[in-house]
Amino acid sequence: MKLTVPLAIALLGSVLAVPTAAEATPSIRWHQCQTTTDDQEGKALDDAGAQCGDLRVPLDYSRPNGPQITVAMSRLKATDRRIGAMVLNDGGPGGPGLGMPLRLKKAMQETGGRFDLIGMDPRFVGRSTPIDCGWSTGSWIVGAGASRASFERGARFSAGLAEQCKDNPYLPYASTRNTARDIDRIRAALGERRISYLSYSYGTYLGAVYAQLFPQRLDRVVLDGPIDPEAYGPGLLREIAPENEAALKAWAGWAAARHSTYGLGRSREQVLGTIDRIQAAAADGLKVGKYDLDDGWVPALLLANLADDREPARAGFSELVRTLSQATTGPVEPTGDTALMLQFMFTGEMSAPASGQLAILCADRAVSSDLGTYWRDIQKHRRAEPHFGPLTRTVTPCAFWPTTPRETPTRIGNGVPALVVAADGDPRATYPMARKLHRALTGSRMITVRDARKHGIFGEHGNDCADRKVIDYLATGKLPRIDSNC
Fold this sequence. Notes:
Blueprint: E1 28-31, H1 40-47, E2 51-58, E3 68-76, E4 84-89, H2 100-107, E5 115-121, H3 148-164, H4 176-190, E6 195-200, H5 202-213, E7 218-224, H6 241-256, H7 259-262, H8 268-282, E8 286-288, E9 291-293, H9 297-303, H10 311-327, H11 336-346, H12 351-364, H13 371-381, H14 389-392, E10 418-423, H15 431-440, E11 444-449, H16 464-476, E12 484-485
Parallel strand pairs: 4-5, 4-6, 6-7, 7-10, 10-11, 11-12
Antiparallel strand pairs: 1-2, 2-3, 3-5, 8-9
Helix pairs in contact: 4-5, 6-8, 8-10
Protein name: Pimeloyl-ACP methyl ester carboxylesterase
Keywords: Hydrolase, Signal
Domain AB hydrolase-1: 85-237
């Protein structure tokens, strides 16, 4: 995507095992979910009978009685033969999860009413105590472009974002390990001996960290869109360009078959030629509405739309490419999802979630600050990864970050039972990543969805085989005997 590291604080995860005399059992302040008349998510939760709550947790778990922050959560209680509580995470990092119980209850079908479904906005995200660096952009990654000058322009952009965060006191405490500790504090506050956990994308890494820190406190575990725990960090996207080049070619074949609708080319090669023409023109600038796009921003727009191979997503991507193609001959006004995406990328509307996401990545793992290392890596792979390598391999603000990680990255290796769900063509968390997490979790079983280029499968891709295997596991708590394909 989205390192001198201090020594880890030994056994820090164990502070939540049993409340000490100095630390009372945490309690949740429950309240209605809707906060304003415009809060549609809160209204939907209230209408479904959910509760929302706030839990105070330590900012720094090495000082449990020190400054506290708030973690926001929701609960949709079980209605039938209750199994227990299940914490949900939608990935990101930094993805809000308050509304997840509504979506997941439906996806879980007959098991949806058997769990207390717990949505949470992780620390510094959404309704939890926020991190907001006050950026005028909602995207912290911009590609290197075609030249050394454009690469250095992107590096200055990254350095500027980091500079705007330098006075934020929360940055050192945004790590995944601390979020895992927050989850265990939620478990304690709910009065549960063990919790179940279902997650997507980055949430699979968070779940693996929780399993490493608190292995005896998990019941059923589903990890969908799995991330390699050794690769996770600010350079997570570095190796994904080949899968996205393949996804781009697959989409180009789809768009070519619909040339009469989108006008992007009658063959896959012609459609890819349209993409190349857009990127070449972007080096001199494209005017889309009030936004100026260069060859650093265009790849970011393209990559953001390649994680879903279903018809509606491909149609939306085709509309975006048509708009960019029109912009190569003069200014054009964006419409629909394209206009919304540009608004998010080029205004401060998404500053807070983008700040939180980057803070988590930078707090988890350090990266090199040597710009030459990034440039040489881009040049080495430019021919094989022409569309996305200069984006996925470029320097990020973490290279200039004002703080360094307080703990070493969590080394994952345990036998906690878990069900891993992966698509063999996932453009975000690639299939080799899934296999590595599966191997690290020696008690896990893996479901592979074949011929799918979708990030996130359960309840999202429409694969009945995979959905049924997950639901059966949630109902019984019994993992499949062997790995399987769908």
